[in-house]
Write a structure and sequence with these properties.
It is built from 14 helices and 20 strands. The protein is an alpha/beta fold. It is globular. The structure holds flavin-adenine dinucleotide.
């Protein structure tokens, strides 16, 4: 426990929390404006970014157009995409890929020198730029980290655990972060006239996830606890084909495998997706994930069969997946890969506008922690790294234009406690059981009860951030009495018109939770 600030680090430029692709790209786009990039883990290896396999979507191929990319995005989003945001993202995508190429990203090219483009589920055309088959995230992250390290104006700091936003005069003025562990832990206040959150998603709040364990919704929770508006929190995407070998997190069998023709079979060797959707294995993610979930619930095992479609090409084309399989004694050239759905991507997040501004003055949000309206109820594959690039560039431009110079006075109140807890097992189990692929009022209410009990047992800010994120997802899911995209209510299986996005604050989520407690109280009387 510590009740005082051990040191203060200030910049005249921007403070960026998160060194995934969104945070690093924003810092590079801000240059020559100074920035501090603060992260839990090493830039270049940090966050979900370094694990991304498929690549980035952009309409750069022959016969492709931004309109087609936009149409596919809107179709996947199941009525909840913001069309203006979708248009600007699809239009600006090729320019951001050119930026990455200029930074040195080693995208795969064809023999004629043109970019090699892959096709993924629910894209009408091949439009995914990739690196060495399934190595896009690692290669792009390493490239951006190298450019950021070379830039004098960018200070990269790793090994910090951010726990709270600092507020001064109604404006976000910095971030409190912990460095070190146990009794040696120190509380540091980072201050800047512009604060940018690039903290990624919340998959690790679930027991079964493809995300690194640092993706636990803390940025979302921090912003929500400071009063920020949150959008579409109930929409969590489950990747259909995490490799089911008992690892936490679960390694991913990229969608591109199905793009190449790999098929899903159950334990009896039956292909079940053909009966579920006209596009079979290439149906939208939520449909494939739910079909697999239902097979598993019915007691079947589910496998990805790559033997015919990919066969001997596997080690060369998909080295990351190949390595993960081989480490568990599965040779995908000859063997079936056991798969199960896992929490993968958060469509919801801190509500942001087309310039990355949140509802809190002084706070911008980019990447997976933001909700721009691009993804709607379901993200189209390979649109997420793209979103980080597009809004990283836009936020950087806005910050540069807006930055008010001048000294920051006074000191914000410091958080009282700061350990570095992992999300409790019970929370992760609860989210995976009650707030996952198929939800109902009974399970969602039970989950809110677990989150509430967790909150009453702690005043640790990091845990409260995770609890806030979990509460928003659950309350949003309870409030949405319909099924749409990634959100499926077994007690409300139909879509309801009109299609409306969710916008709520933590106070709104708390009101929903407290109405449940008072319902229970009435029922008990
Ligand atoms: C296995 C896998 C494969 C994927 N494949 C693709 C793909 O092919 N194409 C695609 O478009 N998307 C893909 N995605 C999704 C995509 O990778 C993410 O949406 C994207 O990388 C998010 O980038 P980001 O920069 O917003 O966050 P991240 O890359 O997750 O970075 C978050 C950063 O915030 C820091 N951070 C978070 N909380 C704190 C804290 N409290 N204190 C200090 N630091 C903190 C972390 O240390 C990290 O530096 C994939 C995701 C996974 C997990």
């Amino acid at each position: 426990m510590n009740t005082h600030i051990d040191s203060i680090i200030e910049t005249d430029g921007a403070l960026i929390l998160g060194a995934g692709i969104a945070g690093l790209f924003t810092a590079l786009k801000l240059a020559p404006m100074p920035s501090i990039v603060l992260a839990g883990t090493r830039p270049g290896l940090s966050g979900s970014s370094a694990w991304a396999q498929g690549g980035i979507a952009a309409a750069m191929g022959e016969g492709d157009s931004w309109q087609s990319h936009a149409q596919d995005t809107i179709a996947a989003g199941a009525g909840l995409c913001d069309p203006a945001i979708v248009e600007l993202v699809a239009r600006e995508a090729p320019a951001r890929i050119e930026d990455l190429i200029a930074y040195g990203a080693p995208f795969d090219h064809k023999t004629d020198g043109a970019l090699a483009l892959g096709r993924e589920a629910a894209h009408s055309l091949p439009r995914i730029v990739h690196v060495k088959g399934d190595g896009a995230g690692a290669a792009i992250s390493a490239t951006l980290a190298a450019r950021a390290a070379e830039a004098d104006c960018i200070t990269l700091l790793e090994g910090f655990h951010a726990i709270e936003l600092a507020m001064e005069h109604g404006r976000v003025s910095g971030i409190f972060a912990r460095s070190g562990l146990g009794p040696d832990a120190r509380l540091i206040l980072f201050r800047a006239p512009a604060v940018i959150l690039a903290t990624g998603g919340l998959g690790a709040l679930y027991a079964v996830t493809t995300n690194p364990l640092e993706a636990r919704g803390e940025g979302l929770g921090m912003a929500a606890r400071a009063g920020a508006l949150i959008a579409d929190p109930e929409f969590v995407q489950f990747h259909p084909t995490a490799i089911s070998i008992g690892r936490d997190p679960a390694p991913l069998a990229t969608e591109a495998l199905r793009g190449e023709g790999a098929v899903l079979v159950n334990g009896r060797g039956e292909r079940f997706m053909t009966a579920v959707h006209k596009d079979a294995e290439l149906a939208p993610r939520d449909i494939v994930a739910r079909a697999i979930h239902r097979q598993l619930v019915a007691g079947e095992e589910v496998f990805l069969d790559c033997r015919q479609a990919i066969g001997a090409e596997f080690p060369h084309h998909f080295p990351t997946v190949y390595g993960a399989c081989m480490s568990a004694g599965i040779d995908p050239v000859r063997d079936l890969i056991p798969v199960a759905p896992a929490a993968h991507y958060h469509m919801g997040g801190i509500a942001s506008d087309a310039l990355g501004r949140s509802s809190l003055p002084g706070l911008w949000v980019v990447g997976e922690c933001a909700s721009t309206g691009l993804h709607g109820a379901n993200r189209l594959a390979s649109n997420s790294l793209l979103e980080g690039l597009i809004f990283g560039a836009r936020a950087a431009e806005d910050v540069r234009g807006q930055l008010a110079a001048g000294a920051i006075r006074g000191l914000p109140p410091a958080p009282q406690r700061f350990a570095s807890p992992a999300p409790p097992h019970i929370l992760r189990q609860t989210m995976s059981r009650d707030v996952a692929l198929e939800r109902d009022a009974h399970g969602l209410r039970a989950a809110l009860g677990v989150v509430h009990r967790l909150e009453t047992l702690t005043n640790e800010p990091a845990l409260l951030n995770m609890a806030a994120a979990a509460k928003l997802v659950t309350a949003g899911a309870l409030a949405r009495k319909e099924s749409r995209g990634g959100h499926w209510r077994s007690d409300y299986p139909d879509k309801k018109d009109p299609a409306l996005r969710t916008f709520m604050t933590l106070a709104d989520a708390e009101k929903i939770a407290s109405e449940i407690s008072s319902d229970k109280l009435h029922a008990a009387r």
